[in-house]
Amino acid sequence: MWGVCYLSRMPFARLAGTLFAVIAAVAVWEAGCAGTPPCARNSDCSEGYCLAGECRQNCIDALLDCPSGYVCNVLSQCESGDASSASVTTGSGTMGSSVSSTGSSVGSAASGGNSSGLLDICSGPNDCGSPLSCQVMSVGGVSRCTRTCVGDADCMTGTRCIDRGGKYCLADDVGRACVAPSSCNFGCLTGPQTCTAACGSGADCPGGYGCQAVGSPPVKVCVKAAAYCAPGESSACVVASACDVSPNLILGGCTLACSSAADCPQRAVPLAPWTCDGLCRRPAGIVGSLPGGYSPVEYHCDANLQPVALCNDGQHLDFDQFTVPNPPAVNCNSDQTTQGVVGDACVDSCRYNGGCSHGFACVGVGSVGAERIGLCFPIGNGEPGTPCSKSRDCAFGYCTAKNVCSRDCTADAVCPTGTACVLGGGPNIEGMPFRRCE
Question: What is this structure's pTM?
Fold first, then answer.
């Protein structure tokens, strides 16, 4: 897939590894709780409540830790969903105070007498309640009821405002393979032949993508940086000369020209950001360029002779098992990388605004220390409320601990018919309470 690559300044013949440095601090909020520092009162605890001098947390994720019908409250205790006013229902278009609606109709029961609401699958123009419209979300893909828009800020997480004989919120297909502009919602980059979208800064682009002007006349679009390159092998880069083989990188990676760090790929807060010195530079600790979804992950040794994953965002995960695999034994003297275990895959962090590239959805189930972050999970076909065993079974990339497909509705409060946007418990993400469709 990658051809002959370069390990530092030494060539190696095969790719075969995942992260050690950053993901060692990254847990999954459905997997456990933080430590228990001493306390005298609830206010002494950064999370949870105080009991017998220790900070306790009964729950992090309501579906995993609480009985059916309960939510995880701000003290990390299970309480009846009826006692919480923070549930957000979408059937009537009602939303929590921290989430604003940009359209006149949200949720599963748009006006007009038709049964299909926002994000419901549809088959024709008469399926969706007014003012929604049945649109193909990406070329050749599924059709869903969606809303009209003026700009991206009007659209649901994972969608963009696209002009298709009228502006509609359609799927973000950045990164999808293409052969012509007609293959994409916005446009096709002729070099790597992938779909792209207009942008004002890197914050408008998926994880692993920055914002750069291309073409003549130049147009600022999302450009992929999460790709391997080396001297003489930069076909994956939009700008062939923008191949970063800095000494801090074990595996060279494509990059972008920039006037400030705002042009560069944006990682989830509080992960260390990219910087700009005329070219976008990966943060210290990121030593590779393999994109999210690359599996099995490739490893080599860092300066301390420790195995390190060569992922572009420095994180890895087994998407199906929802675990962080241990790194393999690595020969630090070898000029070749070492593959991780089967299922070990690179994973990109994400922010709700930029979201994830085609085939992935931004789901707030990761953590760094005590902070929740979004991770790009692979998507499938299962609608919210249907059974699942892994994230890739679900249309919005979220299979809960109770094996039911869901959708992260934190930023837009939108859920398809039959589900409502409710509190999921645990820490906030991007300053907002985490919510999901149940």
Answer: 0.76
User: Are 256 and 268 a contacting pair, CB within 8 Å?
Assistant: no
Describe the chain by its helix, strand, coil percentages, rounded to 5: 5, 30, 65
Round to whole Å and give the CA distance between 377 and 394: 10
Q: Are strands 344-346 and 307-309 parallel, antiparallel or unpaired?
A: unpaired
d(CA 185, CA 172): 8
Helix or strand holding residue 262 (H, E)? none
Coil/strand/helix, residue 363: strand
Measured CA to CA, the distance from residue 11 to residue 31 in angstroms comes to 39
Q: What is the pLDDT along the chain (438 residues), one digit of tens a residue?
A: 232 233 433 333 333 332 222 223 333 333 322 233 455 555 455 456 666 566 666 665 545 556 655 555 545 666 554 322 222 111 222 222 222 222 222 333 343 345 789 999 999 888 999 899 999 999 999 999 999 999 999 999 999 999 988 999 999 999 999 989 999 999 999 878 899 999 999 999 999 999 999 888 899 999 999 999 988 888 888 876 789 999 889 999 999 999 999 999 999 999 999 999 999 999 998 999 999 999 999 999 988 899 999 999 999 999 998 899 999 999 999 989 999 999 999 999 999 999 999 999 999 999 888 899 999 999 999 999 999 999 999 999 999 999 999 999 999 999 999 999 999 999 999 999 999 999
What are the φ and ψ backbone dihedral angles of 195, each rounded to 5 degrees?
Answer: -65, 150
Longest Cα–Cα distance in the chain: 69
Q: How far is CA 6 from CA 42, 48, 228, in A?
A: 53, 48, 9
